[in-house]
Specification:
about 300 residues; alpha/beta; Rossmann fold; 4-stranded parallel beta sheet; 13 strands
Length: about 300
Amino acid sequence: MTRMKMVGRQIFARGTNWFLAALLIIALTLTACTPTEQTPTQYVVDDIGRLVAINGTPERIISLAPSNTEILFALGLGDKVVGVTMYCDYPPEAQDKEKVGDYYGPDIEKIIALQPDLILATDFHRFDLIPALAEQGFTVFAVAPQTLEDVLESIQKIGTITGKEAEALELLNGMTSKIEEIEEQTEELEEKPRVFYITWHDPMWTVGRNTWIDDLIKIAGGVNIFSQYFESGAMVEIEWVIVLNPEIIIASEWSYDWAQNATDLASTNASQTGRVYTFDDDLAQRPGPRLVKGLEWFAHLIHPEIFEEPED
């Protein structure tokens, strides 16, 4: 059984466990309430450990991250999205939605004015924005995946709290099928090139283990050179990169020109063999459905002898 098949089963098992727990809580609450009291239909733990009450099926949803927006549209909820950030540019229809500010500083007054019955936030918002909105009586659900497994689980949770369980299952089946297809072609490879992923170059940032980008590199048949050194994202010195000598460098679009021309990287195997690449970094850096397309790009760039260039 491949690792992704095991991951998929673990996710659905987890989903079953917390869903059954939610049903038990609801049943107990119903027996204790009078007929005139309104009972939340679901209690779900979000990604920062908050128990969130979801009352009915959300009809007015605000997304505070591009990845959350992509998940909502992929589940067929575009017509229920009433607000997004200025960075939510995919799918194109998302750009027509009301803007509630940027990712780092959403406008609370605009959010309140839109009267959402569900707000999808992130871990970044946990200390200030989420408590402020919760105090106003809004339902806020934090989506904060770290690994690829977490991303798949986030899609499942969003499907559950929005009444789109079937659509989420279909989406997840398609994603895991592609992941397993690639993994089956790479897991037994003897040659797994050393890969350096550049998130940003000034200062230089990369990713370690327990990140979805690290997972994508592994599944695509590569070895993240910083996987054994860091748990998540980290700032690194160029001297360390030179010592680890990556065979492939994949840079975000913002850092690609620098990576191609940086004299400091000239001694690396990747620079000397012309294996410095980029692709649409939204496909790798947004934890949503398009990570599968990002995986296809990683597989092609790391093992072009096996994988063709992905179609648009």
